[in-house]
């Protein structure tokens, strides 16, 4: 007797309704209210008023699930203009919500509000949000946790607990006054007074022991630390005394797991690590330490170390909160500040999972190839002025392909969308350096950079290969470059000058790491590939804030595709005006 597979109409309707409810449960709209307001905060025995979101430092955590729509109403109650950037969110066709001031939007002025409206598409993991105007991200930043879709497991053993760990920088002075002074004098801004973990400088700074982040763990349990480098100007080594860290994700993309004692994390980057506690109560406490990586001269960067404390739950103690200061306290052995070998060894181990569930969709062919120099330079001092740059007649500058981007007084994306680009930007950003030289050798005599507002235009769905080359002008330096609106694959990197004949033969086109922020090696180069499948204007800049301020930034203009779902959506009605 044959059994019909067709369900009765009421049953079919019930199943359809259940399926719809499941889909709705998996993808929901999440609403957040972010009030930008001043708050008094005391660190290092000194109080100051800082810009915050909702009075919190660091700011509130934004939690979403892959596929969710997110609406964040930002209301500005401070005297500064404000924008927020959702660092690493793809913003597919929603560039109006990306956040960089004068690139995708005019700032939110005092007393005004703007709703950032975006959908989390095809992403899961740790990202972060921060102010994207001037240096306000010094205190305006927070975590974005993107959970996998309901029912989807991590590709590793689920941790006992997940813990956000944000690295930041703290200045006793007002950072807005500090950067304004630097721009007036043409000199370098003062370095920070401390690093922080979750806003706390910790016990290695004077008058700071009470402001220490402590993580209490249970023997034998595994914890996932969601690491975020929110520091303005420093790449950081991170290590936990007498423990190892297993890397499972970077920039919200899973990687093939590997275990280290020390990792490197650049400003803008995120790294998820698994830390497994010792199987038995160790009768000791352990520093979790972060210290800077830099190849420039000591004294020109904050060379201090920040520490939190990893402590174990004592099975014989009834109290969960008590901290036993009489136990031995172990410190990790941190690398030398200029240990480029450790950095290279770490980054070379990063590989995409490249599995059927999490493929590495590396472009195998290339439509557009570009070669960018990235580095420092100079601009002449204003007439009848004395500067504090490399000489008293020059001021510090930075550039990509010798163009130091000048932001316009209106938003680039709005100008593009309305077709009114005349007088706002040009579409002639150089695809290669205008003058070639020995990039990592002796610097040219003329170190001046050009200034301008030029975009580089890409057709929709073009496959792009970009090589970024550090230069030795004013000294080699590592530059963490962040690309808005896209993830990219890091297909190759090396030291010295890029060799366009031999270096591509060693590119990894199988399982390269996928990320949104990559360090251009000091005195070296990095090659990335990406698919230009997101129409709009997309900022790319060094995530060392001082270099961005000096002009190490540019923008891509990705044209609309031919289909309706390949076009930039219209701007929202509440988009701020300049």
UniProtKB/TrEMBL annotation:
- This protein's name: Laccase
Give the range the annotation lists for the signal sequence: 1-25
* Keyword Lyase in record: no
Among the GO molecular function terms of this UniProt record, one is: hydroquinone:oxygen oxidoreductase activity
* The species this protein was found in: Triticum urartu
Q: Which GO terms describe its cellular component?
A: apoplast
Query: Which reactions is this enzyme annotated as catalysing?
Result: 4 hydroquinone + O2 = 4 benzosemiquinone + 2 H2O
Q: Does the keyword Amino-acid biosynthesis apply?
A: no
- Swiss-Prot/TrEMBL keywords: Apoplast, Copper, Lignin degradation, Metal-binding, Oxidoreductase, Repeat, Secreted, Signal
Q: Entry's InterPro entries?
A: Cu-oxidase-like_N (IPR011707), Cu-oxidase_2nd (IPR001117), Cu-oxidase_C (IPR011706), Cu-oxidase_fam (IPR045087), Cu_oxidase_CS (IPR033138), Cu_oxidase_Cu_BS (IPR002355), Cupredoxin (IPR008972), CuRO_1_LCC (IPR034288)
Q: Where in the cell is it found?
A: Secreted, Extracellular space, Apoplast
> For this chain's UniProt record, which GO biological process terms are given?
lignin catabolic process
The cofactor binding remark recorded in the entry reads: Binds 4 Cu cations per monomer.
State its role: Lignin degradation and detoxification of lignin-derived products.
Assigned protein family: Belongs to the multicopper oxidase family.
What cofactor(s) does the depicted protein rely on?
Answer: Cu cation
């Amino acid at each position: 007797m044959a059994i019909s597979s067709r369900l009765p109409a009421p049953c079919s309707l019930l199943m359809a309704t259940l399926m719809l409810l499941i889909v709705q449960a998996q993808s929901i709209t999440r609403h957040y209210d972010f009030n930008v307001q001043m708050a008094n905060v005391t660190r290092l025995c000194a109080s100051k008023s800082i810009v915050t979101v909702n009075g919190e430092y660091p700011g509130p955590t934004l939690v979403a699930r892959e596929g969710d729509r997110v609406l964040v109403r930002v209301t500005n109650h401070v005297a500064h203009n404000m924008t927020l950037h959702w660092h690493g969110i793809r913003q597919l066709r929603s560039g109006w919500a990306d956040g960089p001031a004068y690139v995708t939007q005019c700032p939110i002025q005092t007393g005004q509000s703007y709703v950032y409206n975006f959908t989390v598409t095809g992403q899961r993991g740790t990202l972060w949000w921060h102010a994207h105007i001037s240096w306000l991200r010094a205190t305006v930043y927070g975590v974005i946790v993107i959970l996998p879709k309901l029912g989807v497991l991590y590709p590793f053993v689920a941790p006992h607990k997940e813990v956000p760990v944000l690295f930041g920088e703290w200045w006793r002075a007002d950072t807005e006054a500090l950067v304004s002074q630097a721009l007036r004098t043409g000199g370098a801004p003062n370095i920070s007074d401390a690093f922080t973990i979750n806003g706390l400088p910790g016990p290695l700074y004077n008058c700071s022991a009470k402001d220490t982040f402590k993580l209490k763990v249970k023997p034998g349990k595994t914890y996932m630390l969601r690491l975020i480098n929110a520091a303005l100007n420093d790449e950081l080594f991170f290590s936990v005394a007498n423990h190892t860290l297993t890397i499972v994700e970077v920039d919200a993309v899973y990687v093939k797991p590997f275990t280290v004692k020390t990792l490197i994390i650049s400003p803008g980057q995120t790294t998820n690590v698994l830390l497994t506690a010792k199987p038995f109560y160790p009768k000791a406490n352990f520093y979790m330490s972060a210290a800077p990586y830099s190849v420039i001269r000591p004294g020109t960067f904050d060379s201090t170390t920040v520490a939190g404390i990893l402590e174990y739950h004592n099975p014989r103690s009834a109290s969960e909160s008590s901290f036993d200061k009489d136990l031995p306290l172990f410190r990790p052995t941190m690398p030398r500040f200029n240990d480029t070998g450790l950095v290279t060894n770490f980054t070379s181990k990063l590989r995409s999972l490249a599995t059927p569930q999490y493929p590495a969709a590396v472009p195998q062919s290339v439509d557009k190839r570009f070669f960018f120099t990235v580095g420092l330079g100079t601009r002449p001092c204003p007439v009848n002025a004395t500067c504090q740059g490399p000489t008293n007649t020059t001021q510090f500058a930075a550039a990509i392909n010798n163009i130091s981007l000048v932001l316009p007084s209106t938003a680039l994306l709005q100008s593009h969308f309305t077709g009114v680009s005349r007088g706002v930007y040009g579409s002639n950003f150089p695809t290669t350096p205008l003058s070639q030289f020995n990039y990592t050798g002796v610097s040219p005599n003329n170190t001046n950079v050009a200034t301008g507002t030029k975009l580089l235009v890409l057709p929709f769905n073009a496959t792009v290969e970009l090589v970024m080359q550090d230069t030795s002008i004013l000294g080699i330096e590592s530059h963490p470059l962040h690309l808005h609106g896209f993830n990219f694959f890091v297909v190759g990197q090396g030291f010295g000058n890029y060799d366009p004949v031999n270096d591509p033969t060693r590119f990894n086109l199988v399982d390269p790491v996928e990320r949104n922020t990559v360090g251009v090696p000091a005195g070296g180069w990095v090659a990335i590939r990406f698919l230009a499948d997101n129409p709009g204007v997309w900022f790319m800049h060094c995530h060392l804030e001082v270099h961005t301020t000096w002009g190490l930034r540019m923008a891509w203009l990705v044209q609309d595709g031919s289909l309706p779902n390949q076009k930039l959506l219209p701007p929202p009605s509440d988009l701020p005006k300049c």
